[in-house]
Amino acid sequence: MLENLIISIPILLVLSSAVMGFSSSKLTNINAGIISSILVFISFIFSLVIFYYSFTNENSILYDDFYQWISISGLNIGMGYLIDKLSAMMMVVVLLISFVVHVYSIGYMRDEKDFKRFFSYIALFTFSMILLVMSNNLIQLFIGWEGVGLVSYLLIGFFYKKESAIKANLKAFLINRIGDMFFIIGIIMIFVLLDSFDYKTMFSNLKLVDISNLEYYYGFNYIDIACFFLFIGAMAKSAQIPLHVWLPDSMEGPTPISALIHAATMVTAGIFMVARLSPVYIYAEVTTDFILIIGALTALFIGVIAIFDNDIKKVIAYSTISQLGYMVSALGINAYTVSFFHLYTHAFFKALLFLCAGSVIMSLHHNQDITKMGGLRKRLPITHFCFLVGTLCIIGFPLTSGFFSKDLILEVMLYENTDLSFFVYILLLIGALVTTVYSLRLIFIVFYGTYRGGDIKKIHEESFVILSPLIILATLSLISGFVIHTFVELPIFMFGVKEIHYEGLLPFISHGVLSPASVTLIAGFFIAKHLYLDNKEISFLSNKYFKKISMIIKSKYKFDEFFLNCSDFMKATSYFAATKFDIKIIDSFIVNGLPRKINKLSTYFKSVSSGYLYHYAFLIVFSLVVIFGIILARVL
Amino acid sequence: MITMTHYLVFSALLFCISVAGIFINRKNILLLLMSIELMLLSVNTNFIIFSNYSNDITGQVFVFFILAVAAAESAIGLAIIVSLFRARNSLEINLINKLKG
Amino acid sequence: MDIISILFYLVTSVVIISSIGLIIVNNTVHAALLLVLIFFNTAVLWLMMNAEFLAIVLVLVYVGAVLVLFLFVIMLLDIQVKKTVSKKLYLLFSVTISAIMFAELYLVIFYHDFQNSTVEIVNKNTSNTYEIGLLLFTEHIFSFEVTAFILLVAIIAAIAINMTDRQRALRQDPGKQILETKEKRLKILKDDEL
Amino acid sequence: MINNILSFLIWLPIISGLMILFYKRNDAVLNFLNIIINFIVFFLSLILLNSYNQTSTNFQFIENTNWIPSLNIYYFLGVDAISVLLIFLNTIIFLIVSLYNSTLNLKNRNQYYASFLLANGLTIGVFSALDAILFYIFFEALLIPMFLIIGIWGGANRIYASIKFFIYTFLGSILLLIAFLYINSSISSFNVLSFYESNFSLIEQEWLFIAMAIAFAIKIPMFPFHTWLPDAHVEAPTSGSVVLAAILLKVGAYGFIRYVLPVVPLGASSLDMFFIILSLIAIVYVGIVAITQNDMKKLIAYSSISHMGFVTLGFFLIFQLFDSTKIQNDIVVSLSGSMYQIISHGFVSAALFICVGSIYDRYKTKKISDLSGLLNQMPVYSWFFVFFALANCGLPGTSSFVGELLIILASFKTSFIFAFLASSTLIISAVYSLWLVKRVIYGELKAGLNNDIDANFLEKIILFSLALIVLILGIYPDYMMTYMNITLQNLTNNIILKI
Amino acid sequence: MNLNDTLMSLSNFAPEIFLFFMAMTILLAGIFKSLKKHVINITIVSTIIAMLLSFFAYTDDSVFIFNDSLIKSNVTEFFKIICYIVFLIQILISQKYLRDKELISGEFYSLLLFALIGCLIIISANNLITLFLGIELSSLSLYSLIALNRTSLISGEAAIKYFVLSIIASALILFGFSYLYGITNSLMINEIANYLSNNELSNLYLFSYILVFIGVAFKFAVAPFHMWLPDVYEGAPLPITNFIASIPKIAFFIFAYRFLNDNQILYDDNFSKFILYLGIFSIFIGNMYALAQQKIMRMLAYSGVANSGFIFLAIFASLEFNFSVAAFYVITYTVTTVSAISIITFISSNKFDVVYIKDLKGLSSKSGLISVLFMITLLSTAGIPLTIGFYAKYLVLDALVDQDMIITAVIVVLLTVIGLYYYLRVIWFMFFEKGFNSLVKSSGTINLIILSIIPLLIIAIFIFPDFVFSYLFAILT
Fold first, then answer.
1. Residue A147 with chain D: CB contacts under 8 Å
2. Which of the other chains make 3 or more beta carbon contacts under 8 angstroms with chain B?
3. CATH fold group of domain C1-119
4. What is the reported pLDDT for E7?
5. What are phi and psi of D75, to 5 degrees?
6. Region(s) of chain C under CATH 1.20.120.1200
7. Which tens digits make up the pLDDT trace of E226-253?
8. Which of D70, D137, D178 is closest, CB to CB, to E413?
9. B4-95 is classed CATH 2.30.30.40
10. Is residue E358 within 8 angstroms of chain D, CB to CB?
11. pTM for the model
12. Could you tell me which residues are beta bridge partners of residue A369?
């Protein structure tokens, strides 16, 4: 029964995708959207059942193969599922947000010509994500991994006539591919070590492997390298420095997509993967330190960029990267459940923020520039409310979901009690301050003050189809933090994590409120209020050193330029190789050159033939003499 | 004492000279024909030498045939030369190189 | 040195010198006459090797017929021979090659061991002509017939090559001229045929 | 009938091809005949696929007649799983090509069809011949129809391309002939099975290997011998390109697996590093060369070379694998990867060439710089194009991924560096495929491109069926993997025994 | 020689004697205006009759006729029949061409028959005299035939070149003969060839053989004795070229076969190397020169030079095998060349001679059949599979490899690849270039059928080659 449910989820999603993709024009857009949403909703219900099952039956793991992908001697790869609490939870989140976005999109995309194509894509995306989440082996994970990347590629380029959109999607795909290249090597390294792609077998084989006696490459442990490579894949997917550059650009896609893919689900695949492979990762000590640093740097430095950006979606995108940095840094201290908790809360409030932004953008007729907004609070009250909820969550206002998850990360970071983790803790604290500043800046500039874009009278709330998802998500954002104990006690797969001191909800709240994070919250509020609500200058900020720093930040640390240079270099190399080496040297000089030489020789021969009878006769006699001479020399 | 080798060497020398005649000569084709006659003459001499040496008359029979054929050859050669001369009004070998390469 | 040797050296030196002369003289008539000289002297050599019949045939057929033919052609064609000088290098080269060729042949012949190789004039009971005739008409009868055909071919060829067609003579035929069309008259020529 | 199925498969298309040469009255009838013949051949190959016994290590459907007793040449046909799959690939591709051809505007339609039918039969001959000379004859004769196809129906520079194609491949194959003759002179048989039992000294094997490897390396083509392929592809008509990429390159790969690896394994293993490096150069360097090509066909041609680099990499890794792991299964994995790559590339490249060809038919240009935003005018085509471009860059779920995965896996077992270089294709292939898509398919429609005709019904069927095959092969590779597993194990045994 | 012998000889040599008779008849017929137009028919009919006579008189045992001047055996009769067939094809195809060139006359056909008879005599010859006379009969007729084309300047030039050089070659052969006669004291070919089985090899014998084979090389046009061939190909009227390219080659192959079969000299390193290197050099020169040619006949001529090189390699290879390899090569080459030249003859019209390769431009669009036939012929000459030419080259390479001459085989093979280019060039002009010359002729059903015979055979024998191989192997052993 349960197996059937599990199988039917991906099947329903593929069905939805195929129906939307190949249906004739008789199916109207609205109907198509409704059908698609219903199918996703059914899947969501199924996933709830599965979720319920896994959380009620302790230590029960659903595991089976649908079919054998490859089964030859020495290599067995199945396509199947492994449902434990982690994946069950993830499935629910994915399907829920997907459903919400489906509904939202019916309203948001209603005027698009390619409405059905859009729905086909998001169904396909949901399918790939489910494949990734429920997978029981690394290959299936990789298939889903690339699948979500593909759909992300297609969706960023959804408005294919826009030059910026098709540039962004290419960039997104290619940078993900860089990650994937390392990822696949990582997968293979794990396979070679553990002799299986299958999680179950892998982890049971792990116990047989003598970790300390493994091969070393350049002074690094085998398992470190493998995990490092896997993590590079995660870095690309979860937009960590320096492979984060694609995510802000990906905002060229339709806004619901930004909510679904580039905030709530796909970008967290990296986190999910590391959590999934946590039994391996705990052996990779060097790599986890690396993960920690990368996460912290991302959390702080990318967050800072958000303060200076004026595109409403990009600000949220940078904030996403920054929040992902928090999750990653939690992974760096093997606090997988904590990271996962933040993933879960973040999914709701970030999706909420994006959808609200979408609502604003739609109301303003596709204006995304926040300098042209302001004072929308009156005209868009529901959106404002929801946006406010989202903002409170992200800045970790007490009792909102963000408060719980972010505080937990900070706590475990402090609790880890090493030099590195303390340093990271400081960075994350500053990050929290930055988060407060940019989040409040956004809401202040957009919803408060006065409207800077023209006639405010024309602006009004969108339809209920748009607003109801906001409300659902807002509710979830507010309450989802209270299930903290579930997460803290969540065993990640068949392996325990480091114990976390958690003494109940109330002590946690009180401890959280009194922590340094609250100071950053208050400080951040005042800075933002001063700067953006009251529009006052802070003299400190007009200091020329700070200007210089802000210039660096505004340039986004030149990462884009770096990748641009890389691609230019590649093009130049390719051009050189194609024209100079391949055509000039191999083709012209050797392949055609040799025949040309022969032809030249031939023409020369032809030109020296005189056609005179006496030359012919002479040649005959000469040859005769030579032949005689040679043979005489041999016989005498 | 004149041995057969003397004769053979003479005949070989005659052959070489006539062969040289063919390619040293660049003036007219008639001389070519004459050189050819000379060449066949040396061949004939060879046959006669061997015929005499082995006391076998067959060699001389061969010479007889060669003589006949050589006469026929001269006839045809002269005919070709006459026809060439009619067409070109010249017998210079230097000018016969339309066909080349 | 016996008489045979003297005769041999005399005759051969005449032949060699005349043949060298033959290939270097400018005048064709002189060349033809030198050829006569060569044939006569060779005939003597052949006589020395007991080939009377062939010696006589050589004189009769060659001097009497073939060379006369040559002279006829020379006179008939009225050839003006321009004095063309061979390139020195080419000349030197050709002479060298011929010399080497001779040297090689000489080596080969010289090192071959012919037993009992003196050449003497012997008196035989049977006539040389008779013996040749006997062989010609018995053993080599087929070859003899073929030779006849070769001569026939020579005759046909000599005539056919130089025959002037009556049809090709320049005469006007008004009826034919009227019927003439462009297609019949025009012929595409290659550059090389000009 | 079933016992002579191979002969039927070979001679049916050849004879009907010759017969079709004499009919030129009605195009519709010609189209119909051509499709029917190709379909029958396809159907026969389906029967072959079905009735082949996967569990047996022997060659099956053997036909052995003493063809030329005085030269010791036999008409010896037989198939193992490798051949069966390649024959199946071959017949599908030719069926698809025949469908595609019937949509074209052609002069001398009957000759065109006849050439393809000849090529069809001859290729099946190549894949099923078990006598070396018979193989060689089919191998060489295959050049003639391809030469004519490129030369007569090709593009502006077709003469250069066709001559280069012919002479270059001929140059290689004639060395092959000498190698066969040499083998024959010492074991006095041209039978492949006796080739497998031959025992040459190391130095002999090395020379034989060089001779044969050059022949097949030109055909595949491997890195320094590859320059004929882009030229041939650019000038060939679309269907010609399809056959060239999907079938002809595979002939070279087939040669390696049938005549080189099991016959002269010692020679191959002593020179394998060189070939591994060439394969890696093909993957990385040729891939990079593909990026800035301005001609779509050239780009795909280079990408073909790059993908075939994987095939040869998989072939030549086996000796290193044997040295480092001594596990036979690893070798089988490597060979399976190569075989899978062969089949997969057949379909993907065929589809890409059909896409490009259709673009060319409509806009009369293959230059990327002349095209942009085709999605606006012909969405169906464009989406197929995008799909196949993605398949070309080895997206999981499509067939290309499977082969690449297995080969990267095998290469990691020998050396980390190999795996690293091989997996760089993930980036490089994505760069050239998707940049192509970006420039051609996406964006605003370029001014001056006018065409309202999207894919017609037949073209939709062609592309859809190809896409379906690519997807099925990607989603369920196990059928094929198991199909050829026994054969590859047997082959591996043969090789290992001789090292 | 008694009457019985004579009658026996006459009956055994009936076809040739009949041809002699008919040659003279034709000559006479040519004189009379009313009969002149029938000379072609008479020639055709008499050739057919001679061929049939030859065919029905075929036996497996060998007979010496005319006091051992001639030999008749299955080898001679087989090659003679091939000569007849080839000759028949040539004269059938050339009618129109000759009529256009106004070359049809009694003497033309009678000379042509004499040339044929000369070659048949070479094939049958058993002693040096008959051999020499056969050579001269055919060559003299051929010089005259070339010179008969009075209207063309280049024909005269070709005639004189062919004449002078050919006589030099004859003289070299005779010079060699004279020494051979001196050493072996015999004019019988088999005695000369068997001389070494009882005697030591002397230098003079070796050099005589080399002189003779330089003559043979000249007749085969093996480089560096090949210069006459391209000039004659270009200068002579096409039917004459066709003859020169084919029938004398067969005849001289038999010549070589007679001199070398069972002869120990083949095992002499110097002589075999002489043959081998001459062959390789010829392949090199032929291919190199052919590459740059613009004129189709010169191109074919140089390709002939290369193929003659292969024939020499095949002769070299008969060291280990027997002459069947060479025989097969000669027959293949002859037949394909005849096909090629016949096709060129056929498409040359009275207004337009096909001279340059580019004259064939777009031929396929005008006449597909002719182009396909020509393509098959060329591919066969190049040695591509599906044609009989493949086996020819295959056998030679096989023989070389069997003698462990791998390097030689590789060199030869690489040179062949060079050669491939110029054959392909003709194909490309026919098939790939657009726009044809409307003056090129391509009609005439009967001629087309005749032209198809050889290409069809080329492919048919490719498919069922064994009976040819085994037959040749049987008769030449």
1. 396-397
2. A, C, E
3. Four Helix Bundle (Hemerythrin (Met), subunit A) (1.20.120)
4. 83
5. -90, 85
6. 1-119
7. 999 999 999 899 999 999 999 999 999 9
8. D178
9. no
10. no
11. 0.91
12. A311
